[in-house]
């Protein structure tokens, strides 16, 4: 089994935005992309940690990566890689 290509085709910086904006931006990016494209989302809103997985599950896209990081100031940040189904 081959591993998926984790190189993002599209990068979305949604830092500082509150839901539903990050999910709306992801939805728009997915609509414009081709099947198999990978969208990277960087967010600061903790609600993305459940909104983005639900978005993927309901619309048939694959959540390749979901991780929590700390930015340079030590604040929590969220990173997602979503592959269009």
TrEMBL record:
Q: Which CDD domains match?
A: SirA
Keyword presence, Transcription regulation = no
Is the keyword Cytoplasm assigned to this protein?
yes
Which one of the record's GO molecular function terms can you name? sulfur carrier activity
| Pfam families listed in its UniProt record | TusA
Q: Which domain of life is it from?
A: Bacteria
Listed GO biological process terms: tRNA wobble position uridine thiolation
Domain UPF0033: residue ranges:
12-36
Question: Which PROSITE patterns does the annotation name?
Answer: UPF0033 (PS01148)
Assigned keywords, A-Z: Cytoplasm
UniProt family annotation: Belongs to the sulfur carrier protein TusA family.
Known NCBIfam families for this protein?
PRK00299.1 (NF001423)
Q: What is this protein called?
A: UPF0033 domain-containing protein
**Species the sequence originates in:** Acinetobacter ursingii ANC 3649
């Amino acid at each position: 089994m081959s591993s998926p290509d984790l190189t993002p085709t599209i990068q979305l910086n949604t830092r500082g935005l509150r839901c539903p904006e990050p999910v709306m931006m992801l939805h728009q990016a997915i609509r414009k992309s081709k099947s198999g494209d990978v969208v990277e989302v960087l967010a600061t809103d903790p609600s993305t940690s459940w909104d983005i997985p639900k978005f993927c599950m309901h619309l048939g896209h694959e959540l390749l990566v979901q991780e929590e990081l700390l930015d340079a100031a030590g604040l929590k940040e969220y990173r997602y890689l979503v592959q269009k189904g």
